[in-house]
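Q: I'm teaching a short session on how sequence maps to structure, and I want students to see two examples side by side rather than one. Could you give me a first protein with its sequence written out and its structure tokens following it? Keep the formatting plain so it prints cleanly on a handout.
A: Of course. Example one:
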Amino acid sequence: MKTSLIKITKAVVALIAIVAAGGLLVSAFHSETATAQNRTMFRICSNATLFGDYAFRISGEIFVPGTNTIAVYRDGVAMTTFDGMGGLTQVDWLVGNGVSDPPPTPGFHGNETGTYTVNPDCTGNAEIDFPIPPGGTSGAVITLKFVVGEHGQAIHTIVASLRPPNTPPGTNVPANVHSDAEKL
């Protein structure tokens, strides 16, 4: 009888251990799932996600239309201010093939304005409208696709279209230009 009681006790202890281990696994899985769900819940973005000044690093190539020939390598920096409501202003300084672009006045190019839309999944679109150059008919227009990261602290962009100054709408040149920014 004593042997039988010991066997039953061992079986009960083993069963308790198995149930406890299973509970730990379920708890760990549930915790991981809840954490993933919480991360997703906090990814809801809007125009208000972008507010304030962001420092951008810009890099890429602009191609000769209709070819794979690179017309100019572009590098630069920009300071973009987002108003939290879909409007932006920007100043930038760029080089093409290592030579700085001559602005109308010394220093950064200014008077750049635009609009942006941030989607709930933290992707978005923007348009930057450049001022009309002296003696010109229209300013350049750049449209961007972007992703917001780090809860609005970072932005990663790619140029979707680039219309040079003094050209009619729809006259885009092929470009492979991207930028990355962090909030100041």
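Q: Perfect. Now a second example for contrast.
A: Example two:
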Amino acid sequence: MDRLQTPPIVTSDFVYLRLIGDRRLAEDQFGKIQIDRTEEIRNWAGKLKEIRQNEKDVKAAIVAANNHYGGYGPGTVDIFRGNMDMEKLSFENVNIEKINHQLELENRFNWKPKEKENQTTLTDFV
């Protein structure tokens, strides 16, 4: 079966790469790398390196990965960073208790959108 190939044409001053998995992993499997995507990541990192070298107008690259891609988004980021010759991220100084406290405070407000049958203006969402 032929695969769809996106032409490698850069048309802006940034590149956006989104690594999305196929949902075969259940959420209770998240937390560590479950699917080896090293070769794919190496491929994409190589393309970004080519762009960095050859496309002087490109100022930034944004790479996003969800947990379904390999099982653990932060782990995927670290693999990608390694392939881009970047420093590995450290989560040692992350204060989980502080983050959880902030989330609890935000959830206390229980923001819910106004319920309407049809949206008529942008303000219907606030």
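Q: What should students look for in example two?
A: Point them to this: The chain is about 35% helix and 10% strand. Also worth mentioning: Helices lie at 38-54, 67-70, 73-83, 96-108.
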